[in-house]
Records
---
Amino acid sequence: MREIRKAAVLGSGVMGAAIAAHLANCGVPSIMLDIVTPNLSEDEKKNPKKRNALVEGNKANLLKAKPAPLYSKSYLNMIETGNFEDDMHKIADCDLIIEVVMENLDIKKQVYAQVAQHRKPGSIVTSNTSGIPIRAMAKDMPKEMSQHFMGTHFFNPPRYLRLLELIPGPDTLPEVVETMAWFGENVLGKGIVYAKDTPNFIANRILTFTMSYILHEMTKEGLTVEEIDALTGPAIGHASSATFRTADLVGLDTFVKVVKNVYDGCPDDECRDYFKMPDWVEKMVEKKLWGNKTGSGFYKKTDKKDEKGKAIVQAIDPDTVEYRDPVKAKFECTGAVRSIEDLAEKLKIMHFSEDKGSKFVFKLFANVAKYAANRIPEISDDIVNIDNAVKWGFAWEAGIFETWDLLGFEEVCKRMEAEGFELPAIAKAVKEAGGNSFYKTENGVDYYFDVATESYKPVPKNPKEIRLAAVKAQPNKEIDRNDSASLIDIGDGIICCEFHCKMNAVDADIVTMLSKGVDLLEDGKYEGMVVANQGPHFSAGANLFLILGQIMQQDWGAIEAMVRGLQGANMRMKYCSKPVVIAPHHYTFGGGLEICMHAAKCVIAGETYAGLVEAGVGVIPAGGGTKEMTVRALELVPEGVNADPFPFIRRSFEDIAMAKVGTSGAEVVELGYLRPTDIIEPNFELQVGRAKNVCLSLIQAGYRPPRPPRLWALGETPRAAFEAAVWGMKEAGFASEHDMLIATKVAYILTGGDRAEGTPITEQDLLDLECEAFCSLCGTEKTQQRIQHMLTTGKPLRN
């Protein structure tokens, strides 16, 4: 396997800069080159800074871009810059060269001619094109370069969308494809899809048909822009931007060009007529109603306000191509699924109900499914790559053929035939082979139906991946279970404590299962434990509904027992004689983060959004979180050195009192919640497997639990400084009286309570202070209001 240590990114526009940023996220330094800044004077042309002003400006824009393309702003220094005229020779140091210049074949070929002069033999050259044929770009390349050339189609924004389509050219060596697949999956955290060199490859080919079909058919069905978005968003497991908000993000001008790629490049496509835009869309293009980039597209934000003070967003009327005031979409099917979480249940209601919206949704699905099935083997050899492309490229919860299975294979076939559809060849082949689904699982192994062999084959899987659902499906692997968590034997003497309740909110059942896991380790039955799950979020924090119920009953003993239970479980994990490795991901708030802070090591997903946010609901971190923030601050003060601990404890105070949230694994570490020695894993699919391997490596290294930390009270002086700062914020209108009360209690704990400066203290002393502060705050009216507001609205209340 070739090693990629440094990359070149040729082109610094939105996509080029974002790719360079994600390389930096994953520890890969790069040099980003672009054209010399245009329109320079003769004197400016002699100034290197002026010559590189364009690329430097695009690099600087990475710090302002939303959503943030970098895990950490500090990663920006991993991107070197230059220009094509002065610095192309620097690509000789690079193992990978990614071309991301404008979508113009002639311009790309000019760049490749320069690349051919300077690249080192064996370096891989790729294009991020979304539509130009790979074979056309490779045509005039030297043989050795064309053998190392292929398409690597990242999706924007590359940090957040997992899809990476790999498209070999006619001369591409198999080992080059293999290297890029390994690098994309294991280093960049991408989901790899193998595409063929056809117009728009896989994901955009399917999406352009889907959206083109909607544009043509919605007017025939009398459906509005708002109604289409209501039917094609989260209600069917698709992104919240649905159809037309997505189009406004992409840009209608860009979308029409991508659609034209198919119309021009696929003369034999049976649905080619759909790729010719309807007149009303062509008029939108002429009027430059392109979406967000021009200020108006399918939607237009106005200066007018509604009764709640929100800006009124108008929508385009296809009949007049003029804007009109919003019309609320009302369908029985969308109303019925609003409170349903199970995807299969939602899909069945949305596709099989009797209202107008549901009938359109089924008709849309049937046409898209048939179109996708007919693209095998044109754009892909199997359904797995097609399903993964739409899931990873567009954030769909289920792929097309997975959706067919969730709806019921036979039910969809019967409905399609009843409505006059001819079943696609693959559906007929499944029936003839005696199957009743496109996918199936046997003995923990996932299979897909392969149309070429008319048989089921194992779904390709990275050997590093552990899928907990598949492990649990095997006999005797789930060794204990309650409503909120399970203990699973994941092999090699390692157990996994998996959370599986709503939002994985920490409750007594989770605490019980963590303790049972530690019992198994201490009893010598297992050698290590991973705490992980593969749900949407690691944990949204404590179960506020249960806490509020105990408050309403004034059951203060139960609240204290709950706090002590989580503290005890966390301390048992921290000082267990065998390693506990924890794998936080996505939402990891409050009590969920406190659990992670007691791990021997964390394997953090790159996309982790974590913080001790308890102040937002009127309490303080009391599961050991405030204690651990004190520990982490004071351990930064070297023993035997007369250093001021205040700057370190101040960071902990600000994190907790201001409920700061890290918006990446790297930021969570920078805030001090987790440690620099913890590991960041960009590929969520590989996180559990990596956590297990880290656990095994700790065992192999002769793991011993940590020694108790060196702790001392900081006394009144820093506490007074914190209180004065909060008072100033209150006087300036940035904090309320209750915010001040909460912050005062945080300062009291962090500085060791009422003990004199320098007095030695223990972790238990801090835990006791946490518990007292938490329980006392629960007794206040304003904290109760905050908890009620969060449960009702999902948003914090500043009272």
Note: The longest strand covers residues 299-305.
---
Amino acid sequence: MKLAIIGTGYVGLTSGACFADMGSTVICVDNNKEKIDLLLDGKIPIFEPGLESMVKRNVAAGRLSFTTDLKSAVAESLLLFIAVGTPPEEDGSADLSHVLAAAQEIASYMNEYKIIVDKSTVPVGTADKVKAKIQEVLDARGVKTGFDVASNPEFLKEGAAIDDFMKPDRVVIGTDSEKVAHIMRTLYTPFCRTNDRIVVMSIRSAEMTKYAANALLATKISFINEISRLCEAYNADVEEVRHGIGSDSRIGYKFIYPGIGYGGSCFPKDIKALIYMSDQVSFDSRILKAVEAVNADQKRLLIDKVAAHFGQNLKGKTFSIWGLAFKPETDDMREAPSIVIINALLEAGARIRAFDPVAMDEARRIFAGKDNICFCDNEYDTLIDSDALMLVTEWHQFREPDFARIKKLLKQAVIFDGRNLYDPAQVREMGFSYYGIGRI
């Protein structure tokens, strides 16, 4: 099958590489020439485990190509996936300007039947806007050709996107056309050999499904974080509570790990968009607003614990930060708790020594021009002259550290564990002051 993907960001590049790996001929298009030149040079602009080797393998096989020439991509492809960004506006609404611009440009080159597929996360009703925009351009050009618009939201976890795409829990296809449903099933059937996980539904239902899924996962995170606060107040251990509720098959263990809040490109943006969508129909989305408020408070929880231990004035204090990305196995720092924590510490007069296995370049960009922050070569270098260790991102290499070495390097044996990686009793027995999330 021949297809084009407009947008070579996280979703577009991953999708393109995975489709190509399953045998399709894929053209990835972007109007950012620097990004395309980078990809043509064999370099990947994002960090995602397994993606670089997959891209190189399929480029070498001739199934995957990169270009800025959308006209030729439209001419050569039946399926045109729109996978451009939909960043949040100040009011929380999704910015659809890139989606509609892509639709307009596609229509300016269409001369025969095409299927335009919204892969970007977009509000309910976006497919109608895309369809109207394409028809408007075709009418202005005097071109009479049929086309269909479908929705195919992505459900990729950063850090595990290749596995998620190649072995999906489900593939959601939003369409009212049997022809489109058949073609999309044909495209995705190789990914679902063991089970038929392809779910066909109306376009608006597909658009809503993506938001509902992310909102529910974010709700689980804020729920367990709120329970962790109650555990601290009543001297209960949230880890024991988590096992107690997670063993219930109706609840499960996923997304009930207490910590310092969610971040990334999806949950914060999608919660805001759903709240905005609710406001547009005069509906008060009380649960979603609470999820967002709890998450904002949780990102500052370690700061409150630092103030309780050291006092409000942190001038002269230095803090070691382990982890900067919003989660392991990615360099993405969008909405990362580390940004809130570091800025709060700097404002209180503290100095920062930080390390992350892959997000250092992104961190240097975000904190460019900030004084009193040092980016170190490894996690142990951050401990030198530091008054406390703050575990922010649960990278594997932080899970079983050399505690004797940590204690020797720190000026004070204090650990603030924002991800509950360590056993409180064990760490305290080694002489540390330990602060976790909802632990006793």
Note: The radius of gyration is 24 Å.
---
Amino acid sequence: MTVAPVRPAESDAPAVAEPTVAPGPFGAPILRKEDRRLAAGEGRYLDDLGHEALAAAFLRSPHAHARIVDIDIDAALDVEGVVAIYTYEDLDGRVAEPLPLLIPHPALHAPRTAYPLAKDVVRHVGEPVAMVVATDRYTAEDAVSLIRVEWEPLPAVIGIDAAVAAEHAVHPDVPDNVAAHLVQEVGDAQAAIAAAPRSLTLDLHVERSASTPLEGKGVYARWDADDRSLRVYTSTQTSTSVRFALAAKLSLPVDRVEVVTPDVGGGFGVKIVHPWPEEVLVPWAAIRLRREVKWVEDRREHFISSAHERAQKHTVRVGFDDEGRILGLDVRFWHDNGAYTPYGIIVPIITSTQLLGPYKVGAYRVEFHSLYTNTVMVTPYRGAGRVHACFVMERVMDAVADHCGLDRAQVRLTNMIRPEEMPYDQGLIFQDGRPLIYDTGDFPRSLRAALDLVDWEGFAAVRAQAQAEGRRVGIGLATYVEGTGVGPYEGAYVRVETTGDVVVATGLTTQGQGHATVFAQIAAQELGVPVDRVTVTTGDTRRFKYGVGTFASRAAVMSGNAVALAARKVRAKALRIAAAALAADESELTIVDGVVSVRGFPDGPSIPLATVAVLANPLRYAFDEEAKRATQFAVPATDGPPVPEGEEPGLEATAWYSPVRSTFANGVHAAVVETDPETAEIRVLRYCVVHDCGTVINPMIVEGQVHGGVAQGVGGALYERIVYDESGQLVNASFMDFLMPYASEVPTVEIDHVTSPSPLNPLGVKGVGEAGVIPGHAVLAAAIEDAEGIRIDRMPISPAELFDLRRRLAAGEDIGLRRRSRGEGPS
């Protein structure tokens, strides 16, 4: 990976308050603290736990849509080792109710969620119908195979076109299959398009895909009948929310429920959904049986019963002038939300609002319908609606440039918001219910940096050389803006131990983002201690009970700022205690390498933070030599109480960060591809990324996040898709058939950074987790189109599909051509 230095943007953005500590680990490319443990095989994942627990297995529907006439479990009950079998009829209390609608919205007029076990009707292949609990998984699976269900098949609604036609209904009380309908409008887009000198209409389509983390879901539950407490281990992106959901579903006081998330082998959005049916049923069974129960998802289960994403169809009308300036944009799209809507309509809302990217488009109107189909439900997957949005907007930009005969980069520059216009209000309501206002960013600078990085102007020579060799190459460009750091809040707890070590805990979970490193860097910076003295705990409600979760590129913004604020509280208290001990003024003190001393006098009086931590907790009893310092006869008596009014014992603090609205990162991707003239094989030759995520905490981790996102972006654009047949059977539900890129298919990523600190949070940071994946469809579609001269209006695209486009073109079909020939330079 090529790494360029971080450089500030030339921007008039408001200044962000500087940290009140000396230069330290914040901003340094520190190696990830967690990697040695994970690389050495010392990770502790869900399936590493509960080896003595009973095992659960599920009977899942083989039909996309069917009525359950009868379930016969007699033969399964005779299997030795079977402990219990449950169907919907066995469920009680709130467990028998539908799973929660997590994010209601006024436009979601017909929300529907599933039952933990199907009641009467199944609505997609893979929906759970019965649960078997046995002494081991093999026995449980054997018993599942003996359960007999009498089915009455019903007509299946598969795909957006079938849902729109509404010849059949997924839910009988939603005859049009429309779960939600939403319109947002700024200005009169239709009038602006009608009055524009030029206009175009585009039909664009993004197909269904799935996140497929290496580790599927899993749940392990332990019930203490004497204590009436429940501990649940679950591979989730939101342990704190699972805790509240289980307390509600199982009718338990929330303080009797603990949820722990061990190491997680990938999430990418699918594990933000909660509670999954299994997350309710496994603890429920553990309580009923008074035994430990565990379930781990296998790969086929993940394909047919977890969540998918991406599928949308767009019709776009755009009006523009001779310079390619957008005067009006009217977007109408249809979103396939699958059989249920537990996560609301967050994905299409993000698509509809993030579609504008870094551009000001005059008047804008967007309308979407979210549709039920007899397929697995759709919830956020890394990129979460932004991949579709970027694809649509960047296809529009390329089409406008082609129509006007203009350079593609120049059309983008013409339409970009300028840095002096920040903050910029797009006039829409974002996914957090707050105004869509860009805080900072220098979009033209990011674009110019990307053009330089990929050598846009020099590509004509590259193309000419390739043509002379009988090769086809093309170059593409895509820009995006990403809303990050959505609320409502996150918190953090920071404590200095009497050893001088620092403990940090926060409510969100970790799935590989490097939280143990970046949060340690923040705490170390604020407290003036070495990074290796800081330990970070995430995803454990025993350590931190409140939080929202890890999703939407929010961890650094939300928990990062909470850690900084908590550490600042601890620092302030440490300086107060040290000032009293050293007979110095607080303003004269500094903390370096875990030692408090008088600023400017390194050989003067000093006191270790470890000792300050001892003094912060007045003691009656001495447990060791350090503790003696804090006992009543070791500390000089004062007129005031040992713990001053308004203070608490210990050198520790909790703080919360809650933003007024999201902060917005941005970036530009450029790619060079080669398409084989005979086989239509597509190869990515170069991939360049310029990214702006505000103040950078750890450049190495930022680059790693971008690199991983690019790998998923390439996979999503060229390989990965979910395919259902007309009866609703998922025909590629295995890694034999669901293609993913290997390392050989992922290009070397060339990265440059532009930095526009956010004025909305103390650290000036923005999110980065989804930056690499968002423009993948758009930039590779543009590059392939440039190489072939054939309009690319749907993604992903395979060699077979590109070959077919060539065939249709040769047969005289009107499939859409670019105006220039392949011999010209970038346009």
Note: The longest strand covers residues 472-484.
---
Amino acid sequence: MGIGAPVRRVEDRRFLEGKGQYLADLDIPGTVDLAFLRSPVAHARLKGVEIPEQYRGQVFLARDIDFVKPIVAVGKAPGFKYSEYPPLARDKLRFVGEMVAMCIARGRAAAEDIAQACVLDFEELPAVWDMEVALRDGAPLVHDDWTDNRFVTTEIKAGDLEAVKAAAAVRVEKSLRMGRHVGVSMETRGVLAHYDNRLGELVVWSSTQFPHVIRTVLAQSLGISESALRVVAPDVGGGFGPKNNFQPEELAVAALAMKIGRPVRWIEDRREHFIASPHAREHRYKLVAYADKAGRILGIEAEVMVDAGAYSVWPWTAAMEAGMAAGIMTGPYDIPVYHGRAITVCTNKAPLGPYRGVGRTGACFAIETLIDAVARAVGRDPQEVRIANMVQPSAMPYRSVTGKLYDSGDYPECARRAIAAIEPEKVRARQQRGEPDGRLIGFGVASYTEQSAHGTAEWVARGLPVVFGYEPALARFTPDGKLILFVGIQNHGQGLETTLAQVAHQELGLPVSDVIVRHGDSSTSPYGMGTFASRSMTMAGGAVSRACATLAEKMKRIGAHLLQAPPGEVRLADGKVWFGEQSVGFAEIAEAAYLHPERLPTGEEPALEANAVYEPGRSTGAFSYATHACTVAVDPGTGVVEVLDYVVCHDCGTIVNPMIVEAQVVGGVAQGLGTALYEEIPYDENGQPLASTFLDYRIPGPTEVPDVRVLHMETPSPHTRFGIKGMGEGGAIAPPAAVVNAINDALRPLGAEINVTPVTPERVLEAIAAAGAAR
């Protein structure tokens, strides 16, 4: 039941039996429901709001909560344009869906009726609806006090690019685009705030990924002490990143509850989620690769441009996505020279936030399609060129040209295993035979690295307002011998209540069923940083291990005393302390520690609990990696793409629970296929989002996601407890690159090429038509 065992998830029973408690399930007497009046236009001067007389006292504007501070992700810093994200718009509307007023009633429908009855008075302005539009000379300014619409531009220059240009036998250029989309968690966002008169504290329930951090920033924004604020995350129905920001809705709802002295609840509807929740992706790339005649890449030039929307989200800032994409661009490859430029653009769209894969999905799409292009240019098989350019295992630990320190792994072997599982010889034979239905078969591969267990120095270098470099845990036995783990991370589908219990079993030898994991409540759990960035198992797992190891020593001392045995000769197993064939159960030890201290060894303190804080051995963290390989069928008549086979070979160091790891990989692949083939929110020239329901916004379902085959490698990290590496985001990183490479392989006989995601049928047909016209 310890590390490495495929233990079934203990938290699933309550969900399968319908006993989970999500934010919408909370029932606090006297609660009023809130609906936001949101901007119907992308860009306008706000002149006022006309409130019908019968609804006065039920509609609240920015001036009604003027005691709160706006959200500021980055202070006034050189090179980064300052902006304030108000909880409610005051003088200007900057994207469709921006909040203008709060309308309350007994019931969401009634609150929506009030919002519908209010009338906005505004002067519409030209919309900055696209990055190219935003960067034109004389473009309208999203923020009037800015000189242009760039949040920030950063550059990386490593190595002598001019020397590489002179030496290269091959020069390959590519331009790529990745579409904008949203997180689409099963449970949307939501907030419920009320004042607890008995404890004298404001209680904010939020469907969030990091309740402790939200408490800190929310207290600062409300101007109250953290000791007077409690933030609780109940069961959270998926996060994926959009719930890992300080939401303006959290601030607005909490402020209103303070003002009116009543419980206030807001549950996001799906249209709000599409138009106003933090968006994801929307990258554009201009790439140049310089290689020798065998396809060995000598250097790369890259420009990454990201549409970050109208505001900078807290705490990640608008610069996160472009900066990460540029910084991890070289992926698992040994590329000696790299010049990269990251441009973060401000437009009249919903702000961009983290989404599973954060920057790496786009970077992988860029480098992996570029690798295939280089291979075609030198007349070699892309997989041969891919493996030839990879960092070799003998080079580990390896520092990349962008300064990333890869700790361990065998990238070429991982690629070879994934490719072999697809059986490329059979795929090529099938291509030669042709399909009876006329579809074209293609084979594609993509590899990536995934940084996890980021330490203090790594976060400091990113310049964020919070440094997420550690994680705490409190392990406490009850007097009847059960163990409760209090942790600062937040479980929302990762199986952490199970895997943390497995770590406790590894250290203490008690059954997983005797371990309870408590999280999500800022008043009961130690202050922690939450769940994101593939960090929870490495960081919280490390903290739980340390706390339980401390408890294990105390259990041995007490158990040895009760057994009248030397402390150094006892062991822990099966919920007992053993000396030879004699044993004493944890319940008896806990009873002595809590209820009968006279039974303890001389000098041993009563109680059985231990605190621990964990930081990785190296701040640069632990790098997981994987190769994805797939085959697709493309219908040249309809443009429809079907994924026929999909293989992932991955290495996340020591695997705690292979069943959970495999499920995480498959879930990530499903989301990655959404990015590759289906999900997109386009905007028209007026800044109106053209996908605001599931009629317009497609997501992959059971018929679109193939049976993903997952192969495991284990190269432990030397820098983390047990050698664990994070892997929660990895499945979503490579699918767009692997699928596009496969589609382009299928379209090669037609001379067509795809360089944009999602690869919709219309785009496939456009590429085929363009190739035909060129011929």
Note: The two ends are 62 Å apart (CA to CA).
